[in-house]
Amino acid sequence: MKPDDDVCLCFHVSLRKIRAYLKREDPPVASLISECLGAGTGCQWCVPILKKLHAQHKAGEVPELGVSAERYATGRSAYRATGDRPDEDQPENPAN
């Protein structure tokens, strides 16, 4: 996923915006990403992904998703149709 690709597809919150917020504010919990940016408050698809990005930040890593924007959007479409989420341990691979 590229920095300007949306993590929250409902409210068009990009990976770049989430990274900047994490770096600037260093929130103690992932839910503050939603509170400040609105990400995760629509269909809820990106909530596990936001948690993963927050955990990466807290571990001193650059928050990253190892999936293309197209595959990510396909996973969200499947989630919206079925309500099934990927394994919580692998939110970066939503189509599996």
Describe it.
- The chain starts with 5 loop residues before the first strand and ends in a 14-residue tail after the last helix.
- Strand 1 and strand 2 (13-14) form a beta hairpin.
- A two-stranded antiparallel sheet has the order 1-2.
- With 96 residues, it is mostly helical.
- The chain contains 4 helices and 2 strands.
- It has a single domain, classed as BFD-like [2Fe-2S]-binding domain (Arc Repressor Mutant, subunit A, Orthogonal Bundle).
- Write down the domain tally: 1
Count the E strands.
Answer: 2
Q: Report how far apart the termini are.
A: 17 Å
- Could you state the order of secondary-structure elements as H and E? EEHHHH
What is the mean pLDDT? Answer: 88
State the low-pLDDT regions, or none: 88-96
| Rg of Cα set | 12 Å
Shape: globular
The CATH superfamily name is BFD-like [2Fe-2S]-binding domain
Largest sheet: 2 strands, antiparallel
**Sequence of strands across the biggest β-sheet:** 1-2
Structural class: mainly alpha
Number of helices: 4
Q: Architecture, according to CATH?
A: Orthogonal Bundle
Please summarize what this structure is:
The chain is mainly alpha-helical and 96 residues long.
